[in-house]
């Protein structure tokens, strides 16, 4: 391997040479005969004397910094040309090359200033600085020229003129190398100076310098890799020509041509060695340091470019020595960097010819790639799945069954791109081995087609996934890659209707049900052309091609299902999904359909089937359809029969003195279920179902022996009656008597539901509670919003007794342990787990229903204290619901919410006192639990102290009053009974503004006696610690409110904030007066808005262009950068700790330049990766020399950075989205 010399950090200016510039483009000197004669090190150590000049120095009198002068006016600068992007980049580069030929010092000075200006620095490197100052001195001088009031620089600026700057900047570097590749880059001057400059800037603490120079260096490296690749090709061609000429007969051999070819090969080899030195200098001087820079954008640039090098010149770069950087960086904290790693690997795995070189990398980092499919960044997860698809395409033995299963379940992800990528992986894995149909043979259709087995495979996969309600999401995931398979409805119908072939196993009932569900979803997807709920932001506009495809699919499904559906309904057991399919095509057999619907309603009592029939009738009963009258008549006849039958059965069922038998109860229940299913989608007000249902419910209350299911469906049916009546009244066309009737019925029904809350049957109580919560929410004060004041008589606010019963129901039926819930029993462990999940789902819905009453101010907010105090104990089950409730209540009334939070803590404290007694141990688990809950409550107030100022102050006020509320029965010398509550209250002290701390402390002293202030016993420690928390920083008058700015976001070196005009401090006495007024029962507010606006707000400190302005901590010696860890006294950072750091969306901490060091976790690499001796060795020409076989690198699978695994968001019922 060719070792590059040590890179210097100063500019170097070699003495004048006889370098000839006879060509300046790629095409003028194809054989590189005019290349520089002298080949040396990339960075010479000599320094140009002050009086020396570059070649042609006298010809630059008409130029300034390499630009022509016209009439004393300087032409536009190189930076401005690139920024505007209006000129052809090749002509810009050609102008610079022409300037370089006249005076290379001035041209290079122009190029140096170009890089300085592209970094956003307003300073200019002068000729004197260029000649006499060292590299570090120039960079230090330029650092001082930065405008630190703004952290923006060209690569990060917004605006139209900066959008294309990065592209133009990169293009300039690429074209510059391309145009100079046959002459100038070999002159030992231009490239030495540029590489030395970029290396020095890339090591700067100024982010703008580091970012811009790293991008320039990486693009320069990419351009040099392209030059090296061309040289390699030319060397192979030259060697082939030489061998062909040498193999000729002696008489026909041209010795002159042989000598010419030998000379040309020698020059190419010298040029290649020179390019190797340049690339070594860039790789060791820039890449190995910046690929783990503190800034994610810089790390991403490095990884993106190394991927380009490995793909462009795989013979030189695609080996374990370079792949390991990508593997290590896959553990980066930032999704942007992880994404670049995956996209770089995709370009490599896409080429099957490179698979052999990726075997060791795949074996070492496959597990990491699989885990990235669950990345918290969806873009990263998508690319990880696509990468695994390419790995699967190249070799199926690499991925184990467990690896594949971890991707399979992602087809049910709520994020559509993730699901689509997983669907493509699933399709490649399960369906890639299907036999292609011979075109010469007649095409098989139906059950005998090739798609039959594939459809069965889809059904089997759907059943094994055990997410049967999510067939729509499975279909949507595979729709883009397997549309032809999923649209083979003829085959699906054949599988359901035709008898199995000889030797073929018939589908079971469970498999048929799954196939019907999948067929329904495919019909819906093809007809509606939009993803299922939760996977799209809304209906998008279809393109002309998509509209044509949609029309063709609708036509074809119409032709198939018009004939097939009646057969399916007649020959197979009824399935609710069949009726949904009718919605999507023209019905030619309407009478047959209506007759079948009536027969099915009369035969079946399954809720899903009855609701499917109801929805089908609702879809057909559209007044715009010509078939409306026929369908309406058929529907009315069916409902007349059902209501008449129900009234007749109910009369016999409720006869006094007779005990109803099971047959009568079943007849009443089945008829009531049919009516309820239809009442959900149809207005049945004209049949007056309220009277009969209310009579049935009232009898159940009086007798107490009404069957459970009858009561549940009667409650649901009556609920529908109320809602349909409200819809009719809301239209404004009803009479006043209708509103009076509705008001009476609603109140009577609410009272009935309240009575059923005391039922002994749990299912009945849950139904009554759910309906009651819905009615209270619907008929609350919200009903008159939107200009509906006419509905004000219908407003119904629950009485205190009803609120108490609702709260008691929640406490008794929701906040219970899993083992206490015996509502579901199961035979096996799997069924038992499913039952527990279903029971938890039901309890979450009940809690969400009650929390909505709190949010919409239907019940008093203070009732939420009983909910909030369960936050820690039931965090896994209901934490999200309780937290959202706290957030919504705070938005409604901050002060009342704070009072509710402190009330919940007081309730827990009282419960603890009653259980442990006054002499409890403050280190007990009960007290520590209350204190931890207080800490969690404190965190919910956020960072903006100004917004929560009043609420926090009132919280302290109530807490102080509670602590001193009950004196100690033993006398004044002993602490109050609740004094320990101050220890809990101290968790909120950090949320007080400093001036408010002083005021609250003064309020605390009103409850203290002189003797209390002198006490130092352990029993008085809560008072002492609370006083200390109020006094910490309370006397600092310079403290200001930080609104939404974390102290961690500040930099080490900052300018003094300028005073804010018009801002003044709030007087201390004002807050104290407000507390006093509040405590005495006055109506004054803690702080009025005018006073709050006078609170001083800290001006944001100016953004520094430097990310780290301190000496970076060395986590490892320089001479052993990635080798065996050295002992040190600093505690190693645990980057794999879950739930911390940037993986939880925290602010990015200020870290060292080498951010990604994990010293205690990197094992010794077998090759001893010393970056100072790692060189780029381009592969030899195939006929020139054999490339030495490299030892394989043994990767360290330990993560250098945090893993970023998220919990996949599967589609489920959100308890708050009812």
TrEMBL record:
For the SCD domain, which residue ranges apply?
A: 287-372
What biological-process GO terms show up in the record? cell division; chromosome segregation; sister chromatid cohesion
An example Gene Ontology molecular-function term: chromatin binding
Task: Please give one Pfam family short name.
Answer: STAG
Domain of life (superkingdom):
Eukaryota
- Which terms are listed as keywords in the entry? Cell cycle, Cell division, Chromosome, Chromosome partition, Coiled coil, Nucleus
Q: Where is this region: Disordered?
A: 1-68, 1122-1142
This protein's record includes keyword Cell division: yes
Q: Is-annotated flag, keyword Glycoprotein? A: no
One CC-aspect GO term: chromatin
Its transmembrane ranges are none
InterPro entries, from UniProt?
ARM-type_fold, Cohesin_Scc3/SA, HEAT_SCC3-SA, SCD, STAG
Q: Which residues form a coiled coil?
A: 228-281
**Biological role:** Component of cohesin complex, a complex required for the cohesion of sister chromatids after DNA replication. The cohesin complex apparently forms a large proteinaceous ring within which sister chromatids can be trapped. At anaphase, the complex is cleaved and dissociates from chromatin, allowing sister chromatids to segregate.
Membership in a protein family: Belongs to the SCC3 family.
Instruction: Describe, as the record does, how this protein assembles with itself and its partners.
Output: Part of the cohesin complex which is composed of a heterodimer between a SMC1 protein (SMC1A or SMC1B) and SMC3, which are attached via their hinge domain, and RAD21 which link them at their heads, and one STAG protein.
Which protein is depicted?
Cohesin subunit SA
What is the organism field in this record?
Electrophorus electricus
């Amino acid at each position: 391997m060719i070792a590059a010399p040590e890179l210097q950090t100063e500019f170097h200016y070699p003495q004048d040479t006889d370098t000839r510039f006879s060509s300046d483009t790629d095409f003028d000197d194809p054989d590189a005969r005019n290349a520089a004669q002298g080949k040396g090190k990339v960075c010479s150590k000599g320094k140009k004397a002050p009086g020396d000049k570059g070649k042609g120095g006298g010809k630059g009198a008409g130029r300034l910094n390499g630009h022509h002068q016209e009439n004393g006016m300087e032409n536009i600068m190189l930076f401005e040309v690139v920024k505007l992007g209006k000129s052809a980049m090749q002509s810009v580069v050609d102008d610079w090359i022409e300037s370089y030929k006249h005076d290379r010092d001035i041209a290079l000075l122009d190029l140096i200033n170009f890089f300085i200006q592209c970094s956003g620095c307003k300073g200019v490197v002068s000729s004197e600085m260029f000649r006499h100052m060292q590299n570090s001195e120039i960079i230090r001088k330029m650092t001082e020229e930065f405008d630190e009031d703004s952290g923006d620089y060209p690569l990060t600026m917004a605006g139209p003129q900066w959008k294309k700057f990065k592209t133009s900047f990169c293009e300039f570097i690429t074209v510059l190398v391309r145009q100079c590749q046959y002459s100038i880059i070999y002159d030992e001057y231009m490239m030495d100076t540029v590489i030395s400059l970029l290396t020095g800037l890339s090591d700067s603490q100024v982010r703008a310098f580091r970012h811009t120079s790293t991008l320039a260096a990486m693009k320069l490296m990419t351009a040099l890799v392209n030059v090296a690749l061309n040289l390699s090709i030319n060397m192979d061609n030259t060697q082939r020509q030489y061998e062909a000429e040498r193999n000729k007969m002696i008489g026909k051999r041209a010795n002159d041509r042989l000598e010419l070819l030998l000379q040309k090969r020698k020059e190419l080899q010298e040029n290649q060695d020179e390019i190797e030195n340049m690339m070594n200098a860039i790789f060791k001087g820039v890449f190995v340091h910046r690929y783990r820079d503190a800034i994610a954008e810089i790390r991403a640039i490095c990884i993106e470019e190394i991927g380009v090098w490995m793909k462009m010149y795989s013979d030189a770069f695609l080996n374990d020595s370079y792949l390991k950087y990508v593997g290590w960086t896959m553990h980066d904290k930032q999704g942007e960097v992880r994404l670049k790693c995956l996209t770089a690997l995709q370009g490599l795995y896409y080429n099957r010819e490179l698979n052999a070189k990726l075997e060791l990398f795949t074996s070492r980092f496959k597990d990491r790639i699989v885990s990235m499919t669950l990345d918290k960044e969806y873009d990263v997860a998508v690319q990880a799945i696509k990468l695994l698809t390419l790995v699967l395409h190249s070799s199926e033995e690499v991925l184990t069954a467990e690896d594949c299963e971890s991707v399979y379940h992602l087809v049910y992800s709520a994020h559509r791109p993730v699901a689509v990528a997983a669907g493509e992986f699933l399709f490649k894995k399960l369906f890639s081995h299907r036999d292609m149909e011979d075109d010469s043979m007649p095409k098989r259709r139906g059950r005998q087609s090739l798609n039959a087995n594939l459809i069965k495979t889809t059904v089997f996969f759907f059943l094994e996934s055990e997410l049967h309600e999510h067939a729509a999401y499975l279909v949507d995931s595979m729709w883009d890659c397997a549309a032809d398979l999923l649209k083979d409805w003829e085959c699906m119908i054949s599988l359901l209707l035709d008898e199995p072939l000889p030797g073929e196993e018939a589908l079971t009932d469970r498999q048929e049900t799954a196939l019907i569900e999948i067929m329904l979803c495919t019909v819906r997807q093809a007809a509606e052309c939009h993803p299922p709920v939760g996977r799209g932001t809304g209906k998008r506009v279809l393109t002309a091609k998509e509209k044509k495809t949609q029309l063709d699919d609708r036509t074809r499904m119409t032709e198939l299902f018009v004939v097939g559906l009646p057969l399916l309904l007649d020959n197979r057991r009824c399935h609710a999904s069949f009726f949904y399919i009718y919605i999507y095509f023209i019905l030619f057999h309407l009478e047959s359909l209506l007759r079948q619907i009536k027969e099915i309603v009369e035969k079946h009592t399954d809720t899903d089937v009855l609701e499917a029939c109801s929805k089908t009738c609702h879809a057909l009963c559209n007044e715009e359809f010509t078939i409306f009258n026929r369908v309406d008549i058929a529907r009315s006849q069916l409902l007349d029969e059902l209501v008449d039958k129900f009234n007749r059965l109910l009369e016999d069922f409720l006869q006094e003195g007779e005990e109803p038998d099971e047959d009568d109860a079943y007849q009443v229940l089945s008829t009531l279920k049919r009516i309820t299913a239809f009442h959900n989608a149809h207005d049945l007000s004209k049949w007056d179902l309220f009277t009969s249902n209310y009579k049935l419910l009232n009898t159940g209350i009086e007798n107490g022996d009404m069957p459970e299911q009858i009561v549940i469906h009667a409650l649901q049916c009556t609920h529908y009656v109320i809602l349909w009546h409200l819809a009719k009244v809301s239209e404004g066309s009803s009479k006043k008597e209708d509103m009076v009737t509705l008001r009476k019925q609603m109140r009577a029904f609410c009272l009935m539901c309240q009575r059923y809350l005391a039922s002994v049957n749990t299912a009945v109580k849950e139904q009554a509670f759910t309906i009651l919560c819905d009615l209270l929410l619907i008929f609350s004060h919200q009903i008159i919003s939107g200009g509906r004041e006419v509905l004000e008589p219908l407003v119904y606010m629950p009485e205190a007794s009803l609120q108490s019963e609702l709260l008691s129901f929640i406490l008794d039926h929701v906040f219970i342990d899993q083992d206490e819930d015996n509502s579901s029993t199961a035979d096996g462990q799997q069924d038992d787990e499913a039952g527990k999940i279903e029971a938890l789902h039901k309890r979450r819905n009940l809690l969400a229903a009650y929390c909505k009453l709190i949010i919409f101010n239907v019940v008093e907010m203070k009732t939420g204290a009983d909910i909030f105090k369960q936050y820690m104990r039931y965090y896994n089950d209901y934490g999200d619901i309780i937290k959202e409730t706290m957030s919504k209540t705070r938005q409604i009334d901050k002060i009342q919410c704070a009072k509710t939070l402190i009330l919940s803590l007081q309730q827990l404290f009282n419960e603890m006192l009653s259980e442990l007694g006054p002499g409890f141990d403050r280190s007990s688990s009960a007290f520590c639990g209350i204190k931890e809950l207080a800490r969690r409550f404190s965190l919910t107030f956020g960072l903006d102290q100004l917004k929560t100022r009043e609420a926090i102050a009132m919280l302290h006020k109530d807490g102080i009053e509670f602590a001193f509320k009950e004196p100690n029965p033993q006398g004044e010398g002993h602490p109050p009974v609740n004094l320990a509550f101050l220890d809990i209250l101290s968790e909120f002290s950090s949320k007080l503004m400093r001036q408010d701390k002083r005021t609250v402390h003064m309020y605390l002293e009103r409850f203290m006696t002189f003797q209390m202030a002198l006490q130092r016993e352990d029993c008085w420690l809560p008072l002492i610690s609370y006083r200390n928390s109020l006094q910490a920083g309370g006397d600092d008058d310079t403290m200001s409110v930080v609104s939404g700015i974390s102290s961690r976001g500040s930099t080490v070196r900052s300018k003094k904030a300028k005073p804010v005009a018009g801002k003044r401090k709030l007087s201390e006495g004002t807050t104290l007066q407000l507390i006093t007024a509040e405590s005495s029962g006055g109506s004054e507010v803690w702080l009025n808005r005018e006073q709050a606006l006078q609170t001083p707000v800290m001006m944001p400190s100016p953004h520094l262009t430097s990310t780290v302005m301190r000496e970076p901590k060395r986590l490892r010696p320089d001479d052993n950068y990635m080798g065996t860890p050295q002992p040190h006294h600093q505690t190693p950072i645990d980057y794999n700790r879950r739930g911390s750091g940037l993986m939880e969306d925290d602010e990015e901490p200020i870290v060292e330049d080498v951010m990604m060091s994990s010293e205690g976790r990197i094992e010794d690499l077998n090759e001893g990766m010393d970056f100072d001796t790692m060189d780029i060795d381009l592969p030899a020409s195939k006929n020139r020399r054999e490339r030495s076989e490299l030892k394989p690198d043994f990767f360290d699978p330990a993560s250098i950075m945090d893993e970023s695994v998220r919990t996949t968001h599967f589609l489920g019922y959100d308890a708050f989205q009812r």
